[in-house]
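Two proteins, back to back. First:
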Amino acid sequence: MIAGLLFTAALVADPVGAPPQAAAAQADSARPAPIADTDLREFAAIAGRKVVGRPVGGPYPTADKVLLIRRDDKGYPVVAASLGFPVRQSLPAPPDGTLAVVRLHQRSETIVPGPTADDLAFVAANKLPLFVIGEWARPAPMWEVAWVDDAVRFRTIGEVGEIGPWRD
């Protein structure tokens, strides 16, 4: 898991020797938006739902699946890293260059299905879009969690991409 994060960090690292002004301009333009662009939302829905039901390899047999989303050199969304993460554990801050994170929960831990407190805390701390997919049902329910109007809010993403209203 740590090797995957280090590998991802190396992929998105700034080039060595870049002038300070260029690095500052690149950092401002690379700063992810708190609400995902439409193409990122659609990509997260397709890529995330493709892995629903697939087993997680590694030391965590009942782990959540986590996908880190960024853009390739042509500007298209890609999965920069795919890893298993222990259930009921808060996600660490993703590496620079990550535009959105997809987390697939195998079981619902809330009375009313939706994002967990850890999911909401991740968005509050990182101001980065998080897509939560529930693997416990078919079709898999999906929520977008984002930093909207200085608060963490979430909304449902339907099977064909329709979005619901923002909720607290």
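And the second protein:
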Amino acid sequence: MGDVLQVILPAVILAAVLWGLSTALRPRNPGISDAERYQLDLAMRSQAHYAKQVQAAEALRARVDASTRPSQNEQQQSQQRDNARDRAQHAHASSGSGYHAPVLPGGQLNPHFELELQALARSGHKIQAIKRLREATRSDLRTAKNYIDRL
């Protein structure tokens, strides 16, 4: 038995040394580390989240635009209604004695209406004056505000 141990024991020791060397020299993880894998996963999730946010913002902008900007057909119908209303007001105003409409046929403001706006503005009721002017002339807010500020 001693002869067998003298042959097998060095062979086992040699196999253990070779296995230890091969294990020590072989890379532990041929792929990416856990930290790198986590960072990549986090970056992909962040990119997907950002893409969803951009898509939601674009959808919201489209809904807001659709609700605030009327279509061309709706704009034409609105203009036709406004024109019909203005013609009716002009016909009604010209049928009576004197002219009481806020806007004269030449597009100028009636002096009485202008004095009324001036009185409102000077008494601290600028918002009411702007509202009255916008209702009478169908002008936008900026134009009406600038006009009232110059009174």
